[in-house]
């Protein structure tokens, strides 16, 4: 990649305390500029540790971190170009959303009030209420606004939608897509596969402190198995069907699983009268589960 | 200065409340002077107290306004209130925020840890200055009505300055312990332990044979031992309180800048 990667770590190790647990065991990670990168893995795998290293909240035991080409330790100004949101967004509850956002905006050198109001309106968030009186979901919205309001070149999101209802998760997906459309880079850890599937270009899977796989979402989608159901006017024999796994014929309905190129299958049924065809969106969740459960296979 | 003003704003209710409480307590005791210190029967009653008890509680010469004010107003309740306030404010600056998990968000913004920490500590220093000033003005205002005009305003200013520095020392201590460890309990414990030991070292321990020296290592002695109400500002004591406060704040900030922020 010709441009500087948004995030680059090399042989990154993080051990807590002198004899404490090793959370990261030599992480090599590169996230390109403008990419939406999903960072997946089971709890305790090292996702939050990685994110806290990117923000300079903790310091590496060894190895290097570069965020937008800069060592996070070397410059607090770097964080002006970042937006950060944690899944458990906690702030002093005695202030209103407006007070908090004004303060955080000031720390960033000012954020247009119009932008804050637009985001709040889009999320249906009342900024005049004290944060302590808001529900978990509404508090999280305040967090979403502060992360996105200054249109940072890099968004670092740590399980950002935990506690949000499906509607808000969808709103969030839209915000990430919009950011991506603006050329912003998004680095997002998540357990919600649907939002990963809808937003990410690539995903990295971390397990036990090391990166076990990096996959392109489009490649995954192509490789993923999807269920197919075809209804015929008068069905062909099973031996005439090509390119379909586990084909079964019940009356006029053919069911089976399709992976990779669909051409052979389509050509093989093209000569028959097809009254209906249903192909499901591939579920990547199952693919991810294999990484979660069986690290050796990765 | 945004962090400084935000700290002031977030704490305004508590800080105003403490300032008013300290001033009210001090004013109340100061206005008892006419009925206690000037009362000959009270003085007679005091004479029957054992000398060591009076020394421990700083109750000697209660019939002089300087002594009365030093013991009843500035001797125990007011410095204790100021110390408790200072410790709690110092704990809040970093350790409480960190333990609540709310420090992460601010530190994810373009503000350096040193600047953030020092602005917060600076806000505490400022409120202690305000508290000292308000208290000073209130006591000066009571000189006429409460009948102790012979105590010069400059001497009242002196003791209030030493009191503010005394508070700053304890704020710096618990701030430093919190900034160093990130643990609330460590910050509270350090502050509270030094308040209690410091008080004992200045009052009861010196009564024990061979423990007289403990007085000189007590922050209470650095604050009141030189009798600022009689002798004015004690430069040595004031410098000691201020110097240690600066040193502690610097050490805590130094460590805070280098360590991991706890989850």
TrEMBL record, chain A:
Keyword ATP-binding applies: yes
PROSITE patterns, A to Z: ABC_TRANSPORTER_1 (PS00211), ABC_TRANSPORTER_2 (PS50893)
SUPFAM superfamilies linked to this entry: P-loop containing nucleoside triphosphate hydrolases (SSF52540)
SMART domains: AAA
Major location category of this protein: membrane
GO molecular function: ATP binding; ATP hydrolysis activity
Signal sequence segment: none
CDD domains, per the entry: ABC_DR_subfamily_A
Topology of this chain in the membrane: Peripheral membrane protein
Keywords: Antibiotic resistance, ATP-binding, Nucleotide-binding, Transport
Taxonomy, superkingdom: Bacteria
Gene Ontology terms: cellular component: plasma membrane
A Pfam family that the UniProt record links to this protein: ABC_tran
Compartments in which it is found: Cell membrane
GO BP terms: response to antibiotic
Domain ABC transporter: 7-233
Stored InterPro entries: AAA+_ATPase (IPR003593), ABC_transporter-like_ATP-bd (IPR003439), ABC_transporter-like_CS (IPR017871), ABC_transporter_ATP-binding (IPR050763), P-loop_NTPase (IPR027417)
Gene3D superfamilies named among the record's database cross-references: P-loop containing nucleotide triphosphate hydrolases
Family listed: Belongs to the ABC transporter superfamily.
PANTHER family, per the entry: ABC TRANSPORTER ATP-BINDING PROTEIN (PTHR42711), ABC TRANSPORTER ATP-BINDING PROTEIN NATA (PTHR42711:SF5)
Name the record gives this protein: ABC transporter
Organism: Rhizocola hellebori
Organism classification: Bacteria, Bacillati, Actinomycetota, Actinomycetes, Micromonosporales
TrEMBL record, chain B:
Keyword Nucleotide-binding (UniProt): no
GO molecular-function term, one example from the UniProt record: ABC-type transporter activity
Pfam families per the UniProt record, alphabetical: ABC2_membrane_2
Keyword annotations: Membrane, Transmembrane, Transmembrane helix
Domain of life the protein comes from: Bacteria
A GO cellular component entry from the record: plasma membrane
TM stretches of this protein: 15-36, 68-87, 121-144, 156-178, 185-201, 238-256
Protein name: ABC transporter permease
Organism: Rhizocola hellebori
């Amino acid at each position: 990649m010709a441009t500087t990667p948004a995030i680059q770590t090399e042989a990154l190790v993080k051990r807590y305390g002198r004899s404490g647990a090793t959370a990261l065991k030599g992480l090599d990670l590169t996230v390109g500029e403008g990419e939406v990168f999903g960072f997946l893995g089971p709890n305790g795998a090292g996702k939050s540790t990685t994110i806290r290293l990117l923000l300079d909240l903790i310091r590496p035991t060894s190895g290097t971190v570069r965020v937008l080409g800069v060592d996070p330790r070397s410059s607090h100004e770097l964080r002006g170009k970042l937006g950060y949101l944690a899944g458990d967004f906690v702030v002093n509850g005695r202030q209103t959303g407006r007070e908090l956002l004004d303060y955080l905006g000031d720390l960033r050198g000012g954020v247009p009030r119009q932008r804050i109001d637009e985001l709040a309106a889009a999320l249906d968030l009342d900024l005049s209420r004290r944060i302590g009186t808001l529900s978990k979901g509404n508090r999280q919205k305040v967090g979403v606004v502060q992360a996105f309001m200054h249109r940072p070149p890099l968004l670092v999101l740590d399980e950002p939608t935990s506690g949000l209802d499906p509607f808000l998760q969808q709103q969030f997906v839209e915000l990430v897509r919009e950011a991506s459309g603006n050329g912003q880079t998004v680095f997002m850890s998540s357990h919600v596969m649907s939002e990963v599937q809808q937003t990410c270009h690539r995903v990295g899977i971390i397990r036990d402190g090391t990166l076990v796989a990096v996959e392109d979402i489009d490649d995954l989608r192509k490789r993923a198995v999807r269920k197919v159901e075809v209804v015929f006017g008068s069905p062909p024999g099973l031996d005439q069907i090509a390119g379909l796994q586990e084909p079964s014929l019940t009356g006029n309905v053919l069911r089976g699983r399709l992976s990779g190129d669909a051409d052979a299958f389509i050509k093989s049924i093209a000569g028959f009268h097809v009254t209906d065809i249903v192909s499901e969106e591939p579920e990547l969740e199952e693919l991810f589960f294999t990484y979660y459960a069986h690290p050796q296979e990765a | 200065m945004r962090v400084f003003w935000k700290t002031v704003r977030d704490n305004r209710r508590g800080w105003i409340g403490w300032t008013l409480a300290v001033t009210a307590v001090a004013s109340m005791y100061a206005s008892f002077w006419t009925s206690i210190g000037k009362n000959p029967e009270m003085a007679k009653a005091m004479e029957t107290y054992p000398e060591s008890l009076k020394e421990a509680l700083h109750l000697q010469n209660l019939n002089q306004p300087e002594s009365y004010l030093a013991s009843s107003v500035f001797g125990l309740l007011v410095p204790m209130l100021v110390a408790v306030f200072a410790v709690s404010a110092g704990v809040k600056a970093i350790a409480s925020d960190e333990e609540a998990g709310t420090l992460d968000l601010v530190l994810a913004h373009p503000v350096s840890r040193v600047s953030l920490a020092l602005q917060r500590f600076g806000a505490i220093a400022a409120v202690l200055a305000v508290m000292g000033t308000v208290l000073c003005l209130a006591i000066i205002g009571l000189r006429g009505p409460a009948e102790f005009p012979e105590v010069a305003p400059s001497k009242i200013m002196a003791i209030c300055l030493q009191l503010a520095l005394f508070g700053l020392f304890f704020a710096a201590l618990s701030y430093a312990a919190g900034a160093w460890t990130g643990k609330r309990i460590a910050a509270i414990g350090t502050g509270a332990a030094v308040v209690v030991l410091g008080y004992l070292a200045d009052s009861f321990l010196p009564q024990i044979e061979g423990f007289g020296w403990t007085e000189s290592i007590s922050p209470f002695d650095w604050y009141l031992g030189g009798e600022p109400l009689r002798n004015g500002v004690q430069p040595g004591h004031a410098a000691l309180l201020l110097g240690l406060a600066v040193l502690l704040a610097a050490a805590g900030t130094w460590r805070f800048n280098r360590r991991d922020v706890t989850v």
